[in-house]
Automatic annotation (TrEMBL):
EC assignment: 2.7.1.21
Annotated gene: tdk
Binding site for substrate: V170, Q171, I172, G173, Y178
Matching InterPro entries: P-loop_NTPase, Thymidine_kinase, Thymidine_kinase_CS
Residues involved in Zn(2+) binding: C145, C147, C182, H185
Subcellular location: Cytoplasm
Keyword vocabulary terms for this entry: ATP-binding, Cytoplasm, DNA synthesis, Kinase, Metal-binding, Nucleotide-binding, Transferase, Zinc
Biological process terms in GO annotation: DNA biosynthetic process; thymidine metabolic process
Gene Ontology cellular component terms for the protein in this record: cytosol
Subunit text: Homotetramer.
GO-annotated molecular function: ATP binding; thymidine kinase activity; zinc ion binding
Protein name per its UniProtKB record: Thymidine kinase
Catalytic activity annotation: thymidine + ATP = dTMP + ADP + H(+)
Length: 198
């Protein structure tokens, strides 16, 4: 039975690596997959999912105006597809997550979405919020804070390495712009005004 999966984490936890490994597992067994990533996130090149450890794969892209049910339906019309993989799922609109759920329910294809849960201000991305509401299964891809605790938050840094506390929710970047932290050290970095933090 097909399901909608949401694999979430903070920055630099290895989400793309896990996605690419899962897609490779299907390929090793002779099964076709359909990979999608956000059109405007072209750090690895246009239409490419890549990991910091050096592996990558070509992918179709989605923009905020795309109907993902129709995209998946079109891909299924070209031949067998065992699974759909979505990278950068936080950039999906709420409507697009519903379209993915419809593809799972009506087309019978599993969809595995990988993305951030929260932004640098501790707010849910719209796509992630809807995935948390609709996913049949959720899995956390874990990474650690510099203190050794599980990192659940992320801070954005400017060109001088200073923490940014405001601005647009979306700014494409990697290690040069974002640092994953545990909640306590995120609060400290964001200067939440609590003098009891050590």
């Amino acid at each position: 039975m097909a399901k909608l999966y949401f694999n979430y984490s903070t920055m630099n936890a290895g989400k793309s690596t896990v996605l690419l490994q899962a897609a490779h597992n299907y390929a090793e067994r002779g099964m076709q997959t359909y990979l999608l990533t956000a059109q405007f996130d072209n750090r690895a090149g246009e239409g490419r999912i890549a990991s910091r450890i050096g592996i990558g794969e070509a992918a179709d892209t989605f923009s905020i105006s795309d109907d993902l049910f129709r995209k998946i339906e079109g891909r299924l019309g070209k031949g067998p597809c065992a699974c759909v993989f979505i990278d950068e799922a936080q950039f999906l609109s709420s409507d697009q997550v519903w379209q993915l759920a419809r593809a799972v329910d009506d087309l019978g294809v599993p969809v595995m979405a990988y993305g951030l849960r929260v932004d640098f201000q501790g707010e849910l991305f719209p796509g992630s919020a809807t995935l948390l509401a609709l996913a049949d299964e959720m899995r956390e891809v874990r990474t650690i804070c510099f203190c050794g605790k599980k990192a659940t938050m992320v801070v954005r840094k400017d060109a001088n390495g200073d923490v940014v506390t405001g601005g647009n929710q979306v700014q494409i970047g990697g290690n040069e712009s974002y640092v994953s932290l545990c909640r306590r050290h995120w609060r400290e970095a964001m200067d939440d005004g609590d003098d009891t933090l050590v």
